[in-house]
Amino acid sequence: MNTPALKDWPLWEVFVRSKQGLEHKHCGSLHAADAAQALHMARDVYTRRQEGVSIWVVPSVAITASNPDDKGELFDPAADKIYRHPTFYEIPEEVGHM
Amino acid sequence: MYTQAMDIPDDSGKKLAAVSNAPSDREAAFEARIDADGRIEPQDWMPEAYRRTLVRQISQHAHSEIVGMLPEGNWISRAPSLKRKAILIAKVQDEGGHGLYLYSAAETLGTSRDQMLEGLHSGKAKYSSIFNYPTLNWADVGVIGWLVDGAAIMNQVPLCRCSYGPYARAMVRVCKEESFHQRQGYEALLVMMKGTDEQRAMVQDAVNRYWWKCLAMFGPPDADSPHSAQGMRWGIKRISNDDLRQKFIDATVPQAKVLGVTLPDPDLKWNEARGHYDYGQIDWAEFWNTVEGNGPCNKERLATRVKAHNDGQWVRDAAQAYARKQKERALKEAA
């Protein structure tokens, strides 16, 4: 099977805004020759039922991801900083909602 | 649509580079996450066998969606009304979309799109055997929606809780869309059943031909399904073949009654003690014969698929050439 083009079509990550006022959310990926084609294909693949009002496509290679092995280093330090949460502080009942 | 043969061995996934002996603490962390019903994401370490199993299962599933477009696609130009034609086009387009979600999910495991397509087109990779049977009359299209997609839903809903994140997320989207597939099929059959004797006979004939094939879609009995236990252990498979089959039968019998058709199994009867319907023997020899490539339409389906791919080569090449040209032009303008 001779499919050189398929090998060369880069991978794109697709982000869809489901409605005005909400953020774009990652919904999947696809192969396309260029950005315009990626947008066009994202519309057909990911928004056949009015799932979105706006689409972003990003070349997958442009995404830098944190390494799962660094999870502890990156995220554990936040675990003992409970004073960053409002529930850490005791406020007298009569103050009411704060 | 769906695949039954998710634990049918084939060659896909074998070519993945083997990760050298991973330290056992990684393996322990993986096992612990699985035990806690956690999710595995693409960047996480995973045992090679887990990766291979997923590549095989997800790519077989994707192939099934793509080949699944063919039996119904044959009826688009012959649909009995504009309404049914629009519905069928939408459904076939959905199947193509499902294939694309699943190919993307499989690619996160390190396989590539052309590797998977090569597997399908060369006949090395399997897809659901249900698509190797012909769609002889319009009622077949309704029966595929009602029974084949119905069986697919039974199988796919538990996959939404699969331990591999990208697969589970793809399945959530697939399941949302699949419900329309089953309902449109059942409704199309209801309309035919209100028609002439000849139309009712067509529905019954389609049910007779597809019923047993649909039961086989759930895969071999648990006792003969060697991969099942490991798949369950890894949280890839959540419910066994036989349990899913039973669930499907129990759900379908009342639907058949409302529709007014007979399911072609003299042994099919309610078992009060079990709280389930008993059913007859599935012809597994025929199932395996079709899996091995000797079903009525295996060759035709594959040939159609390969031809479609080859006929589309110039489109892919043109898109590629256009993208290259645009890039060069942008560079020149910037200079």
Automatic annotation (TrEMBL), chain A:
<dbReference type="GO" id="GO:0097266">
    <property type="term" value="F:phenylacetyl-CoA 1,2-epoxidase activity"/>
</dbReference>
<protein>
    <submittedName>
        <fullName>1,2-phenylacetyl-CoA epoxidase subunit B</fullName>
        <ecNumber>1.14.13.149</ecNumber>
    </submittedName>
</protein>
<dbReference type="InterPro" id="IPR009359">
    <property type="entry name" value="PaaB"/>
</dbReference>
<dbReference type="Pfam" id="PF06243">
    <property type="entry name" value="PaaB"/>
</dbReference>
<keyword id="KW-0560">Oxidoreductase</keyword>
<dbReference type="InterPro" id="IPR038693">
    <property type="entry name" value="PaaB_sf"/>
</dbReference>
From TrEMBL, chain B:
<dbReference type="InterPro" id="IPR011881">
    <property type="entry name" value="PaaA"/>
</dbReference>
<dbReference type="GO" id="GO:0010124">
    <property type="term" value="P:phenylacetate catabolic process"/>
</dbReference>
<dbReference type="InterPro" id="IPR012347">
    <property type="entry name" value="Ferritin-like"/>
</dbReference>
<dbReference type="GO" id="GO:0005829">
    <property type="term" value="C:cytosol"/>
</dbReference>
<dbReference type="Pfam" id="PF05138">
    <property type="entry name" value="PaaA_PaaC"/>
</dbReference>
<dbReference type="GO" id="GO:0097266">
    <property type="term" value="F:phenylacetyl-CoA 1,2-epoxidase activity"/>
</dbReference>
<dbReference type="InterPro" id="IPR009078">
    <property type="entry name" value="Ferritin-like_SF"/>
</dbReference>
<dbReference type="InterPro" id="IPR007814">
    <property type="entry name" value="PaaA_PaaC"/>
</dbReference>
<protein>
    <submittedName>
        <fullName>Phenylacetate-CoA oxygenase subunit PaaA</fullName>
    </submittedName>
</protein>
<dbReference type="InterPro" id="IPR052703">
    <property type="entry name" value="Aromatic_CoA_ox/epox"/>
</dbReference>
